[in-house]
Amino acid sequence: MIFKTLAGKTSVVGLRLPQTFLFLLVLGSLGFGALFFLPETSRLKRIFQHNSDSSAVITDSVNGQRAQPISPIGYGLIRAPPLDIGVLRSKSQLSSSNGKQRNNNKGRSQGTVSMEHMSEGDAADNKVHTRGVVVSSRARSPVRVKLRNCMLKPPYGANYGKPSDPESLQRREKVKEMMKFAWDNYKRYAWGENELRPLSRNGNDGRTFGGLRGASIVDSLDTLYIMGLGEEYQEAKEWVENNLNLSVGGEASLFEVNIRYVGGLLSAYYLTGEEVFKRKVVELGRNLLPAFNTPTGIPHGVVNLAGDSRRSTGGDLGRSSVLAEFGTLHLEFVHLSELTKDPIYTEKVMNIRKHLNQLDKPHGLYPNALNPVSGNWEQHYVSIGALGDSFYEYLIKSYLMSDRTDEVAKRMYYAALEAIEKNLVQRSPGGLIYVAEWRGGILDHKMGHLACFSGGMIGIGAEHGSPETRQHQLDLAANITHTCHESYRRTPTKLGPEVFRFDDGAEATAPRVNERHYILRPEVVESYMYMWRLTHDPKYREWGWEALEALERHCRLATGFSGIIDVYGHIIQHDNLQQSFFLAETLKYLYLLFSDDDLLPLKDWVFNTEAHPLPVIPRNCSQKTEDTDRWPA
Ligand code: DMJ
After folding, report:
1. Where in the chain are disulfide-linked cysteines found (predicted)?
2. Is position 609 annotated in a ligand binding site?
Protein backbone atom coordinates (compact mmCIF):
# COMPACT_ATOMS: atom_id res chain seq x y z
CA MET A 1 0.00 0.00 0.00
CA ILE A 2 1.64 3.12 -0.99
CA PHE A 3 1.10 5.38 1.82
CA LYS A 4 -0.94 6.52 4.57
CA THR A 5 -0.95 9.89 2.97
CA LEU A 6 -1.56 8.74 -0.49
CA ALA A 7 -3.87 5.93 0.21
CA GLY A 8 -4.95 5.91 3.71
CA LYS A 9 -4.29 9.00 5.54
CA THR A 10 -5.85 11.66 3.44
CA SER A 11 -3.09 13.97 4.31
CA VAL A 12 -1.80 16.97 2.66
CA VAL A 13 -0.77 14.83 -0.16
CA GLY A 14 -4.32 13.79 -0.42
CA LEU A 15 -3.79 11.38 -3.29
CA ARG A 16 -5.12 7.91 -3.45
CA LEU A 17 -4.34 6.28 -6.71
CA PRO A 18 -1.05 4.95 -7.99
CA GLN A 19 -1.78 6.65 -11.30
CA THR A 20 -2.14 9.93 -9.52
CA PHE A 21 1.12 9.34 -7.82
CA LEU A 22 2.83 8.63 -11.10
CA PHE A 23 1.41 11.89 -12.29
CA LEU A 24 2.98 13.57 -9.29
CA LEU A 25 6.27 11.92 -10.00
CA VAL A 26 6.22 13.38 -13.44
CA LEU A 27 5.29 16.78 -12.10
CA GLY A 28 7.95 16.50 -9.45
CA SER A 29 10.58 15.63 -11.96
CA LEU A 30 9.52 18.58 -14.03
CA GLY A 31 10.07 20.76 -11.05
CA PHE A 32 6.42 21.55 -10.43
CA GLY A 33 6.41 19.52 -7.27
CA ALA A 34 3.51 17.91 -5.64
CA LEU A 35 0.02 19.15 -6.32
CA PHE A 36 -2.73 18.00 -4.15
CA PHE A 37 -6.15 16.95 -5.01
CA LEU A 38 -9.25 15.90 -3.33
CA PRO A 39 -12.26 15.24 -5.44
CA GLU A 40 -14.69 18.10 -5.49
CA THR A 41 -17.57 16.20 -4.08
CA SER A 42 -20.87 17.75 -3.32
CA ARG A 43 -21.06 20.46 -0.74
CA LEU A 44 -21.73 19.17 2.67
CA LYS A 45 -24.39 20.44 4.93
CA ARG A 46 -24.24 20.16 8.60
CA ILE A 47 -27.25 18.52 10.03
CA PHE A 48 -26.25 18.46 13.55
CA GLN A 49 -24.90 21.19 15.67
CA HIS A 50 -23.93 20.45 19.17
CA ASN A 51 -24.88 22.98 21.74
CA SER A 52 -22.06 22.86 24.18
CA ASP A 53 -20.75 25.92 25.85
CA SER A 54 -17.82 27.08 23.87
CA SER A 55 -16.38 29.05 26.70
CA ALA A 56 -15.24 25.76 28.17
CA VAL A 57 -16.16 26.55 31.70
CA ILE A 58 -14.75 24.02 34.04
CA THR A 59 -16.76 22.87 36.97
CA ASP A 60 -15.16 22.94 40.32
CA SER A 61 -15.37 19.37 41.42
CA VAL A 62 -14.81 20.22 45.02
CA ASN A 63 -17.99 22.11 45.64
CA GLY A 64 -19.74 21.54 42.35
CA GLN A 65 -20.12 25.21 41.62
CA ARG A 66 -19.84 26.55 38.12
CA ALA A 67 -16.71 28.58 37.72
CA GLN A 68 -16.20 31.60 35.55
CA PRO A 69 -14.41 30.97 32.29
CA ILE A 70 -10.83 30.69 33.30
CA SER A 71 -8.07 32.94 32.19
CA PRO A 72 -4.67 31.56 31.22
CA ILE A 73 -3.51 29.04 33.66
CA GLY A 74 -0.14 30.56 33.92
CA TYR A 75 1.70 27.37 33.40
CA GLY A 76 4.36 27.41 30.78
CA LEU A 77 3.29 30.74 29.47
CA ILE A 78 5.73 32.51 27.21
CA ARG A 79 5.12 36.21 26.93
CA ALA A 80 8.69 36.99 26.49
CA PRO A 81 10.49 38.61 23.70
CA PRO A 82 12.40 35.92 21.95
CA LEU A 83 15.74 34.49 22.81
CA ASP A 84 17.95 32.75 20.36
CA ILE A 85 18.40 29.57 22.21
CA GLY A 86 16.62 28.54 25.22
CA VAL A 87 14.86 26.13 27.34
CA LEU A 88 11.78 26.75 29.31
CA ARG A 89 11.62 26.21 32.96
CA SER A 90 9.43 26.98 35.86
CA LYS A 91 10.05 29.99 37.96
CA SER A 92 9.67 27.96 41.08
CA GLN A 93 12.48 25.76 39.89
CA LEU A 94 14.64 28.65 38.81
CA SER A 95 14.46 30.44 42.06
CA SER A 96 16.20 27.63 43.84
CA SER A 97 19.12 29.38 45.50
CA ASN A 98 21.52 26.51 45.91
CA GLY A 99 21.22 25.27 42.37
CA LYS A 100 19.22 22.24 43.33
CA GLN A 101 15.73 21.75 42.09
CA ARG A 102 12.82 22.44 44.28
CA ASN A 103 10.05 20.00 44.54
CA ASN A 104 8.03 20.51 41.39
CA ASN A 105 4.80 19.34 42.84
CA LYS A 106 5.04 21.71 45.67
CA GLY A 107 5.58 24.62 43.32
CA ARG A 108 2.65 23.64 41.18
CA SER A 109 0.23 23.03 43.94
CA GLN A 110 0.92 26.48 45.23
CA GLY A 111 -0.24 27.80 41.94
CA THR A 112 2.92 29.74 41.24
CA VAL A 113 4.33 27.93 38.29
CA SER A 114 5.28 29.95 35.32
CA MET A 115 7.98 29.64 32.77
CA GLU A 116 11.08 31.52 31.92
CA HIS A 117 13.05 31.42 28.81
CA MET A 118 16.70 30.86 29.38
CA SER A 119 19.79 30.05 27.51
CA GLU A 120 21.04 26.51 27.72
CA GLY A 121 24.11 27.62 29.62
CA ASP A 122 22.12 29.49 32.17
CA ALA A 123 19.78 26.64 32.57
CA ALA A 124 22.68 24.41 33.38
CA ASP A 125 24.00 26.83 35.95
CA ASN A 126 20.57 27.50 37.33
CA LYS A 127 20.92 31.25 36.89
CA VAL A 128 17.82 33.25 36.45
CA HIS A 129 17.65 35.19 33.23
CA THR A 130 15.95 38.48 33.59
CA ARG A 131 15.22 39.23 29.97
CA GLY A 132 12.53 37.39 28.28
CA VAL A 133 10.42 36.18 31.02
CA VAL A 134 6.99 35.53 31.67
CA VAL A 135 5.73 35.07 34.91
CA SER A 136 2.19 34.75 35.38
CA SER A 137 0.99 34.19 38.81
CA ARG A 138 -2.67 34.29 38.05
CA ALA A 139 -5.39 34.63 40.55
CA ARG A 140 -5.87 31.26 42.09
CA SER A 141 -9.08 29.41 42.07
CA PRO A 142 -9.83 25.85 43.03
CA VAL A 143 -10.52 25.20 39.37
CA ARG A 144 -7.19 26.38 38.21
CA VAL A 145 -5.26 24.61 40.89
CA LYS A 146 -7.18 21.47 40.23
CA LEU A 147 -6.56 21.68 36.51
CA ARG A 148 -2.90 22.28 37.08
CA ASN A 149 -2.51 19.42 39.46
CA CYS A 150 -4.47 17.00 37.42
CA MET A 151 -3.75 17.79 33.85
CA LEU A 152 -0.77 19.97 33.31
CA LYS A 153 2.49 18.18 33.61
CA PRO A 154 5.85 19.83 33.65
CA PRO A 155 7.29 19.04 30.26
CA TYR A 156 10.90 19.37 31.34
CA GLY A 157 11.49 17.58 34.63
CA ALA A 158 14.70 18.36 36.43
CA ASN A 159 17.13 18.93 33.57
CA TYR A 160 14.93 20.24 30.83
CA GLY A 161 15.94 17.42 28.60
CA LYS A 162 19.47 18.69 28.35
CA PRO A 163 21.57 15.67 27.45
CA SER A 164 24.52 15.06 29.69
CA ASP A 165 27.01 14.20 26.97
CA PRO A 166 28.36 16.96 24.75
CA GLU A 167 27.87 15.02 21.52
CA SER A 168 24.14 14.59 22.06
CA LEU A 169 23.86 18.22 23.09
CA GLN A 170 25.53 19.26 19.87
CA ARG A 171 23.27 16.98 17.86
CA ARG A 172 20.21 18.34 19.59
CA GLU A 173 21.31 21.85 18.72
CA LYS A 174 21.64 20.73 15.12
CA VAL A 175 18.04 19.53 15.10
CA LYS A 176 16.96 22.85 16.50
CA GLU A 177 18.84 24.66 13.78
CA MET A 178 17.02 22.52 11.19
CA MET A 179 13.69 23.41 12.74
CA LYS A 180 14.51 27.08 12.64
CA PHE A 181 15.63 26.80 9.04
CA ALA A 182 12.46 24.95 8.03
CA TRP A 183 10.33 27.48 9.90
CA ASP A 184 12.11 30.55 8.53
CA ASN A 185 11.65 29.37 4.97
CA TYR A 186 8.02 28.50 5.52
CA LYS A 187 7.58 31.97 6.97
CA ARG A 188 9.38 33.63 4.12
CA TYR A 189 7.68 31.91 1.21
CA ALA A 190 4.45 30.36 2.43
CA TRP A 191 3.31 32.14 5.57
CA GLY A 192 -0.30 31.24 6.34
CA GLU A 193 -0.45 28.56 3.66
CA ASN A 194 -0.58 24.97 4.71
CA GLU A 195 2.86 23.89 3.62
CA LEU A 196 5.97 25.25 1.97
CA ARG A 197 6.86 24.28 -1.58
CA PRO A 198 10.55 25.04 -1.42
CA LEU A 199 11.41 24.75 -5.10
CA SER A 200 8.64 26.94 -6.36
CA ARG A 201 8.96 29.14 -3.26
CA ASN A 202 5.31 29.31 -2.49
CA GLY A 203 2.68 27.55 -0.44
CA ASN A 204 0.35 24.65 -0.93
CA ASP A 205 -3.26 24.97 0.11
CA GLY A 206 -3.66 21.32 1.11
CA ARG A 207 -7.23 20.67 0.13
CA THR A 208 -7.43 17.80 2.56
CA PHE A 209 -7.94 20.42 5.23
CA GLY A 210 -11.09 21.75 3.64
CA GLY A 211 -10.03 25.35 3.52
CA LEU A 212 -8.29 25.44 6.86
CA ARG A 213 -5.01 27.24 6.55
CA GLY A 214 -1.74 27.39 8.42
CA ALA A 215 -1.28 23.62 8.91
CA SER A 216 2.48 24.06 9.30
CA ILE A 217 1.91 26.72 11.93
CA VAL A 218 -0.47 24.69 14.05
CA ASP A 219 1.62 21.55 13.59
CA SER A 220 4.76 23.43 14.71
CA LEU A 221 3.52 25.18 17.85
CA ASP A 222 4.62 22.55 20.33
CA THR A 223 7.89 21.76 18.53
CA LEU A 224 8.86 25.43 18.59
CA TYR A 225 7.88 25.65 22.20
CA ILE A 226 9.80 22.64 23.47
CA MET A 227 12.87 23.64 21.47
CA GLY A 228 12.77 27.04 23.11
CA LEU A 229 12.28 28.90 19.84
CA GLY A 230 10.37 31.61 21.65
CA GLU A 231 10.12 34.22 18.90
CA GLU A 232 8.89 31.70 16.39
CA TYR A 233 6.42 30.30 18.89
CA GLN A 234 5.07 33.81 19.48
CA GLU A 235 4.61 34.39 15.75
CA ALA A 236 2.79 31.10 15.49
CA LYS A 237 0.56 31.87 18.43
CA GLU A 238 -0.31 35.29 17.07
CA TRP A 239 -1.23 33.82 13.73
CA VAL A 240 -3.53 31.33 15.43
CA GLU A 241 -5.09 34.10 17.44
CA ASN A 242 -5.66 36.47 14.53
CA ASN A 243 -5.91 34.36 11.41
CA LEU A 244 -6.99 30.82 12.10
CA ASN A 245 -10.51 30.67 10.77
CA LEU A 246 -12.16 27.41 11.75
CA SER A 247 -15.53 27.76 10.09
CA VAL A 248 -14.39 27.36 6.54
CA GLY A 249 -16.69 25.85 3.97
CA GLY A 250 -14.60 23.17 2.33
CA GLU A 251 -14.56 19.42 2.73
CA ALA A 252 -11.96 18.38 5.23
CA SER A 253 -10.55 15.04 6.23
CA LEU A 254 -11.83 14.38 9.74
CA PHE A 255 -8.69 12.40 10.43
CA GLU A 256 -6.19 14.96 9.19
CA VAL A 257 -7.90 17.87 10.87
CA ASN A 258 -8.07 15.90 14.07
CA ILE A 259 -4.46 14.75 14.25
CA ARG A 260 -2.89 18.01 13.09
CA TYR A 261 -5.20 20.84 14.15
CA VAL A 262 -7.02 19.39 17.14
CA GLY A 263 -3.89 17.58 18.30
CA GLY A 264 -1.66 20.61 17.68
CA LEU A 265 -3.95 23.04 19.48
CA LEU A 266 -4.53 20.71 22.42
CA SER A 267 -0.82 20.20 22.89
CA ALA A 268 -0.12 23.89 22.61
CA TYR A 269 -2.75 24.52 25.26
CA TYR A 270 -1.49 21.90 27.66
CA LEU A 271 2.13 22.98 27.26
CA THR A 272 1.58 26.70 27.50
CA GLY A 273 -1.73 27.26 29.23
CA GLU A 274 -2.59 29.92 26.64
CA GLU A 275 -6.35 30.32 26.56
CA VAL A 276 -6.45 31.06 22.84
CA PHE A 277 -5.55 27.46 22.04
CA LYS A 278 -8.36 26.13 24.17
CA ARG A 279 -10.86 28.50 22.61
CA LYS A 280 -9.84 27.46 19.14
CA VAL A 281 -9.76 23.75 19.77
CA VAL A 282 -13.16 23.77 21.42
CA GLU A 283 -14.62 25.60 18.43
CA LEU A 284 -12.97 23.18 16.03
CA GLY A 285 -14.10 20.13 17.98
CA ARG A 286 -17.71 21.24 17.67
CA ASN A 287 -17.31 21.69 13.93
CA LEU A 288 -16.18 18.10 13.55
CA LEU A 289 -19.24 16.55 15.14
CA PRO A 290 -21.43 16.36 12.00
CA ALA A 291 -19.12 13.68 10.63
CA PHE A 292 -20.55 11.28 13.19
CA ASN A 293 -24.07 11.61 11.98
CA THR A 294 -24.34 8.16 10.44
CA PRO A 295 -26.65 5.27 11.33
CA THR A 296 -23.84 3.53 13.17
CA GLY A 297 -22.02 6.55 14.55
CA ILE A 298 -18.92 5.42 12.66
CA PRO A 299 -17.92 8.77 11.18
CA HIS A 300 -17.54 9.58 7.55
CA GLY A 301 -14.06 10.43 6.41
CA VAL A 302 -14.92 13.90 5.17
CA VAL A 303 -16.63 16.70 7.04
CA ASN A 304 -17.70 20.20 6.17
CA LEU A 305 -16.38 22.50 8.84
CA ALA A 306 -18.78 25.34 8.18
CA GLY A 307 -21.71 23.11 8.96
CA ASP A 308 -23.51 23.89 5.74
CA SER A 309 -23.73 20.35 4.45
CA ARG A 310 -26.53 17.90 4.83
CA ARG A 311 -24.19 15.04 5.05
CA SER A 312 -20.59 14.14 5.28
CA THR A 313 -19.13 11.72 2.82
CA GLY A 314 -16.79 8.79 2.69
CA GLY A 315 -13.09 9.34 2.57
CA ASP A 316 -10.36 7.36 0.95
CA LEU A 317 -12.31 4.31 0.00
CA GLY A 318 -15.35 5.91 -1.54
CA ARG A 319 -18.21 5.39 0.84
CA SER A 320 -16.25 3.27 3.27
CA SER A 321 -14.83 4.65 6.44
CA VAL A 322 -11.18 3.85 6.96
CA LEU A 323 -9.97 2.09 10.09
CA ALA A 324 -6.93 4.31 10.54
CA GLU A 325 -9.13 7.38 10.14
CA PHE A 326 -12.10 6.69 12.39
CA GLY A 327 -9.82 4.75 14.75
CA THR A 328 -7.53 7.71 15.30
CA LEU A 329 -9.76 10.11 17.16
CA HIS A 330 -9.81 8.70 20.64
CA LEU A 331 -7.00 10.60 22.35
CA GLU A 332 -8.02 14.01 21.08
CA PHE A 333 -11.73 13.51 21.65
CA VAL A 334 -11.28 12.35 25.23
CA HIS A 335 -9.26 15.49 25.85
CA LEU A 336 -11.94 17.62 24.21
CA SER A 337 -14.38 16.25 26.76
CA GLU A 338 -11.88 16.93 29.53
CA LEU A 339 -11.57 20.54 28.45
CA THR A 340 -15.20 21.27 27.78
CA LYS A 341 -16.68 19.04 30.47
CA ASP A 342 -19.00 17.93 27.73
CA PRO A 343 -19.09 14.13 27.43
CA ILE A 344 -20.20 14.18 23.81
CA TYR A 345 -16.71 13.77 22.40
CA THR A 346 -15.90 10.81 24.61
CA GLU A 347 -19.27 9.30 23.77
CA LYS A 348 -18.57 9.52 20.05
CA VAL A 349 -15.28 7.67 20.27
CA MET A 350 -16.53 5.18 22.83
CA ASN A 351 -19.29 4.30 20.42
CA ILE A 352 -16.72 3.58 17.70
CA ARG A 353 -14.81 1.35 20.00
CA LYS A 354 -17.91 -0.48 21.18
CA HIS A 355 -18.90 -1.13 17.59
CA LEU A 356 -15.47 -2.50 16.69
CA ASN A 357 -15.33 -4.60 19.79
CA GLN A 358 -18.52 -6.41 18.99
CA LEU A 359 -17.78 -7.06 15.30
CA ASP A 360 -16.50 -10.42 14.09
CA LYS A 361 -12.88 -10.14 13.10
CA PRO A 362 -11.28 -12.48 10.60
CA HIS A 363 -8.58 -14.35 12.52
CA GLY A 364 -8.82 -11.63 15.13
CA LEU A 365 -7.63 -9.05 12.58
CA TYR A 366 -9.22 -5.67 11.84
CA PRO A 367 -9.91 -5.05 8.14
CA ASN A 368 -9.13 -1.57 6.88
CA ALA A 369 -12.54 -0.49 5.60
CA LEU A 370 -15.95 -0.41 7.18
CA ASN A 371 -19.31 0.71 5.87
CA PRO A 372 -20.60 3.46 8.16
CA VAL A 373 -24.19 2.74 7.20
CA SER A 374 -24.34 -1.03 7.60
CA GLY A 375 -21.56 -1.15 10.15
CA ASN A 376 -19.93 -4.13 8.41
CA TRP A 377 -16.45 -4.63 7.06
CA GLU A 378 -16.23 -3.81 3.38
CA GLN A 379 -13.25 -6.01 2.52
CA HIS A 380 -10.75 -8.14 4.30
CA TYR A 381 -7.54 -6.24 3.72
CA VAL A 382 -5.43 -5.78 6.80
CA SER A 383 -2.42 -3.55 7.27
CA ILE A 384 -0.43 -2.19 10.12
CA GLY A 385 0.74 0.44 7.64
CA ALA A 386 -1.50 2.55 5.41
CA LEU A 387 -5.21 2.51 6.25
CA GLY A 388 -4.75 0.60 9.50
CA ASP A 389 -1.74 1.86 11.43
CA SER A 390 -2.75 4.50 13.94
CA PHE A 391 -5.88 2.61 14.98
CA TYR A 392 -3.60 0.14 16.78
CA GLU A 393 -1.44 2.97 18.07
CA TYR A 394 -4.46 4.66 19.63
CA LEU A 395 -5.54 1.51 21.47
CA ILE A 396 -2.37 1.25 23.50
CA LYS A 397 -2.06 5.01 23.84
CA SER A 398 -5.66 5.30 25.07
CA TYR A 399 -4.75 2.86 27.78
CA LEU A 400 -1.63 4.81 28.69
CA MET A 401 -3.36 8.21 28.51
CA SER A 402 -6.04 6.96 30.89
CA ASP A 403 -3.33 6.34 33.47
CA ARG A 404 -3.75 2.67 32.71
CA THR A 405 -7.39 2.50 33.66
CA ASP A 406 -8.86 1.95 30.19
CA GLU A 407 -8.93 -1.84 30.36
CA VAL A 408 -11.03 -2.22 27.22
CA ALA A 409 -8.43 -0.47 25.11
CA LYS A 410 -5.75 -2.59 26.71
CA ARG A 411 -7.53 -5.85 25.95
CA MET A 412 -8.25 -4.82 22.38
CA TYR A 413 -4.64 -3.81 21.82
CA TYR A 414 -3.05 -7.01 23.08
CA ALA A 415 -5.60 -9.18 21.28
CA ALA A 416 -4.93 -7.30 18.03
CA LEU A 417 -1.18 -7.60 18.54
CA GLU A 418 -1.49 -11.33 19.09
CA ALA A 419 -3.45 -11.68 15.84
CA ILE A 420 -0.90 -9.55 14.00
CA GLU A 421 1.95 -11.67 15.29
CA LYS A 422 0.20 -14.88 14.40
CA ASN A 423 -0.86 -13.83 10.91
CA LEU A 424 1.34 -11.01 9.67
CA VAL A 425 4.75 -11.06 11.32
CA GLN A 426 7.32 -12.80 9.11
CA ARG A 427 11.02 -13.51 8.93
CA SER A 428 12.75 -12.90 5.60
CA PRO A 429 15.22 -15.40 4.17
CA GLY A 430 17.95 -13.04 5.31
CA GLY A 431 16.58 -13.02 8.85
CA LEU A 432 14.78 -9.67 8.91
CA ILE A 433 11.55 -9.50 10.88
CA TYR A 434 8.76 -7.58 9.16
CA VAL A 435 5.00 -7.12 9.30
CA ALA A 436 3.38 -8.18 6.03
CA GLU A 437 -0.01 -7.07 4.74
CA TRP A 438 -2.97 -9.41 4.40
CA ARG A 439 -5.46 -9.58 1.57
CA GLY A 440 -8.27 -11.92 2.49
CA GLY A 441 -5.84 -14.51 3.79
CA ILE A 442 -3.05 -13.98 1.26
CA LEU A 443 0.09 -12.28 2.43
CA ASP A 444 1.63 -9.39 0.58
CA HIS A 445 5.28 -9.40 1.65
CA LYS A 446 5.90 -5.72 1.93
CA MET A 447 6.06 -3.04 4.58
CA GLY A 448 5.25 0.62 4.16
CA HIS A 449 7.40 3.31 5.73
CA LEU A 450 4.25 4.13 7.68
CA ALA A 451 4.30 0.69 9.31
CA CYS A 452 7.67 1.49 10.85
CA PHE A 453 5.93 3.36 13.66
CA SER A 454 5.08 -0.11 14.99
CA GLY A 455 8.56 -0.63 16.46
CA GLY A 456 7.91 2.20 18.89
CA MET A 457 4.31 1.22 19.50
CA ILE A 458 5.12 -2.39 20.35
CA GLY A 459 7.98 -1.14 22.49
CA ILE A 460 5.84 1.14 24.66
CA GLY A 461 3.19 -1.57 24.93
CA ALA A 462 5.66 -4.25 26.01
CA GLU A 463 5.90 -3.37 29.65
CA HIS A 464 2.15 -3.24 30.16
CA GLY A 465 1.24 -6.65 28.80
CA SER A 466 1.62 -9.89 30.68
CA PRO A 467 5.06 -10.32 32.26
CA GLU A 468 5.71 -13.45 30.17
CA THR A 469 5.36 -11.57 26.90
CA ARG A 470 7.29 -8.48 27.94
CA GLN A 471 10.74 -9.44 26.71
CA HIS A 472 9.31 -11.06 23.62
CA GLN A 473 7.45 -7.89 22.66
CA LEU A 474 10.46 -5.73 23.35
CA ASP A 475 12.51 -8.01 21.07
CA LEU A 476 9.84 -7.78 18.41
CA ALA A 477 9.89 -3.99 18.67
CA ALA A 478 13.68 -3.96 18.38
CA ASN A 479 13.60 -6.35 15.42
CA ILE A 480 11.06 -4.30 13.49
CA THR A 481 13.02 -1.14 14.20
CA HIS A 482 16.15 -2.89 12.97
CA THR A 483 14.39 -3.91 9.75
CA CYS A 484 13.23 -0.34 9.19
CA HIS A 485 16.78 0.85 9.73
CA GLU A 486 17.92 -1.68 7.13
CA SER A 487 15.45 -0.19 4.66
CA TYR A 488 17.37 3.07 5.08
CA ARG A 489 20.86 1.55 5.23
CA ARG A 490 20.38 -0.33 1.96
CA THR A 491 19.89 2.78 -0.13
CA PRO A 492 22.63 5.06 -1.42
CA THR A 493 20.92 8.10 0.08
CA LYS A 494 20.50 6.41 3.49
CA LEU A 495 16.86 7.45 3.47
CA GLY A 496 14.20 4.77 3.31
CA PRO A 497 11.66 4.14 0.55
CA GLU A 498 7.92 4.52 0.92
CA VAL A 499 7.43 0.77 0.56
CA PHE A 500 9.99 -2.00 0.88
CA ARG A 501 9.50 -5.59 -0.07
CA PHE A 502 10.51 -9.08 0.88
CA ASP A 503 9.66 -11.01 -2.25
CA ASP A 504 11.37 -11.98 -5.49
CA GLY A 505 14.74 -11.65 -3.84
CA ALA A 506 14.03 -8.23 -2.32
CA GLU A 507 15.07 -7.80 1.31
CA ALA A 508 13.89 -4.49 2.75
CA THR A 509 14.40 -2.83 -0.63
CA ALA A 510 12.06 -1.22 -3.15
CA PRO A 511 12.25 -2.84 -6.57
CA ARG A 512 9.25 -0.87 -7.84
CA VAL A 513 10.01 2.59 -9.11
CA ASN A 514 6.80 4.11 -7.81
CA GLU A 515 7.59 3.02 -4.25
CA ARG A 516 10.99 4.63 -3.94
CA HIS A 517 10.11 8.07 -2.70
CA TYR A 518 10.82 9.53 0.73
CA ILE A 519 8.53 12.38 1.76
CA LEU A 520 10.19 13.45 5.03
CA ARG A 521 8.20 10.92 7.00
CA PRO A 522 8.83 10.44 10.71
CA GLU A 523 7.97 6.80 11.48
CA VAL A 524 11.48 5.38 11.46
CA VAL A 525 13.01 8.06 13.68
CA GLU A 526 9.88 7.87 15.81
CA SER A 527 10.70 4.23 16.59
CA TYR A 528 14.34 5.14 17.22
CA MET A 529 13.19 7.68 19.79
CA TYR A 530 10.93 5.23 21.64
CA MET A 531 13.49 2.43 21.52
CA TRP A 532 16.15 4.80 22.84
CA ARG A 533 13.92 5.77 25.74
CA LEU A 534 13.12 2.12 26.46
CA THR A 535 16.59 0.60 26.14
CA HIS A 536 19.17 3.40 26.08
CA ASP A 537 21.01 1.40 23.49
CA PRO A 538 23.28 4.02 21.85
CA LYS A 539 22.72 2.54 18.41
CA TYR A 540 19.35 4.30 18.22
CA ARG A 541 20.99 7.69 18.62
CA GLU A 542 23.53 6.72 15.98
CA TRP A 543 20.80 5.64 13.59
CA GLY A 544 18.95 8.88 14.21
CA TRP A 545 22.08 10.84 13.45
CA GLU A 546 22.58 8.88 10.20
CA ALA A 547 19.04 9.84 9.19
CA LEU A 548 19.64 13.47 10.11
CA GLU A 549 22.81 13.59 8.04
CA ALA A 550 20.97 12.09 5.10
CA LEU A 551 18.18 14.65 5.47
CA GLU A 552 20.74 17.41 5.46
CA ARG A 553 22.54 16.00 2.45
CA HIS A 554 19.59 15.19 0.22
CA CYS A 555 16.51 17.00 1.44
CA ARG A 556 17.84 20.40 2.47
CA LEU A 557 17.55 23.03 -0.22
CA ALA A 558 18.39 26.70 0.04
CA THR A 559 14.71 27.40 0.63
CA GLY A 560 13.59 24.67 3.00
CA PHE A 561 13.39 20.89 3.17
CA SER A 562 11.86 18.70 0.50
CA GLY A 563 11.02 15.04 0.01
CA ILE A 564 12.85 13.15 -2.72
CA ILE A 565 11.52 11.08 -5.59
CA ASP A 566 13.92 8.14 -5.52
CA VAL A 567 15.98 7.11 -2.52
CA TYR A 568 18.06 4.89 -4.81
CA GLY A 569 18.71 7.62 -7.36
CA HIS A 570 22.16 9.00 -7.88
CA ILE A 571 20.75 12.25 -9.12
CA ILE A 572 18.40 13.59 -6.49
CA GLN A 573 15.03 14.94 -7.58
CA HIS A 574 12.89 16.76 -5.08
CA ASP A 575 9.13 16.58 -4.67
CA ASN A 576 8.87 20.27 -3.77
CA LEU A 577 7.07 19.80 -0.48
CA GLN A 578 8.05 20.46 3.09
CA GLN A 579 5.36 18.42 4.77
CA SER A 580 3.90 19.86 7.95
CA PHE A 581 4.57 16.55 9.69
CA PHE A 582 8.28 17.12 9.14
CA LEU A 583 8.06 19.99 11.63
CA ALA A 584 5.52 18.35 13.90
CA GLU A 585 7.07 14.90 14.01
CA THR A 586 10.34 14.17 12.26
CA LEU A 587 12.24 17.05 13.82
CA LYS A 588 10.49 16.72 17.17
CA TYR A 589 11.32 13.02 17.46
CA LEU A 590 14.93 13.70 16.50
CA TYR A 591 15.12 16.43 19.12
CA LEU A 592 13.71 14.11 21.75
CA LEU A 593 16.09 11.35 20.67
CA PHE A 594 19.04 13.58 21.54
CA SER A 595 17.44 14.90 24.73
CA ASP A 596 17.35 13.30 28.13
CA ASP A 597 14.25 11.40 29.13
CA ASP A 598 12.87 14.12 31.36
CA LEU A 599 11.81 16.17 28.37
CA LEU A 600 8.18 15.13 27.94
CA PRO A 601 8.56 11.97 30.03
CA LEU A 602 6.61 9.05 28.63
CA LYS A 603 4.96 8.32 31.95
CA ASP A 604 3.26 11.73 31.88
CA TRP A 605 2.74 12.41 28.18
CA VAL A 606 1.34 10.46 25.26
CA PHE A 607 2.10 11.57 21.73
CA ASN A 608 -0.76 11.61 19.31
CA THR A 609 -0.09 10.16 15.87
CA GLU A 610 1.16 13.55 14.68
CA ALA A 611 3.60 13.68 17.63
CA HIS A 612 1.58 16.23 19.60
CA PRO A 613 2.05 15.50 23.30
CA LEU A 614 -1.10 15.12 25.38
CA PRO A 615 -0.99 14.71 29.14
CA VAL A 616 -1.91 11.47 30.82
CA ILE A 617 -5.17 11.98 32.71
CA PRO A 618 -4.34 10.84 36.21
CA ARG A 619 -6.69 8.30 37.72
CA ASN A 620 -6.96 10.30 40.92
CA CYS A 621 -7.63 13.52 39.08
CA SER A 622 -10.69 15.07 40.60
CA GLN A 623 -12.05 16.02 37.19
CA LYS A 624 -12.10 12.43 36.23
CA THR A 625 -13.99 11.17 39.19
CA GLU A 626 -16.98 13.15 37.98
CA ASP A 627 -17.34 10.66 35.20
CA THR A 628 -16.41 7.31 36.65
CA ASP A 629 -18.10 5.41 33.85
CA ARG A 630 -15.75 6.74 31.23
CA TRP A 631 -14.10 3.43 30.51
CA PRO A 632 -17.00 0.97 30.36
CA ALA A 633 -15.93 -2.64 30.38
C1 DMJ B 1 1.46 11.90 9.76
O2 DMJ B 1 0.45 12.76 9.37
C3 DMJ B 1 1.00 11.01 10.89
O4 DMJ B 1 2.08 10.37 11.46
C5 DMJ B 1 0.04 9.99 10.41
O6 DMJ B 1 -0.33 9.08 11.43
C7 DMJ B 1 0.68 9.21 9.30
N8 DMJ B 1 1.14 10.03 8.23
C9 DMJ B 1 1.93 11.17 8.55
C10 DMJ B 1 3.41 10.95 8.59
O11 DMJ B 1 3.93 10.02 7.75
Report:
1. 452-484
2. yes
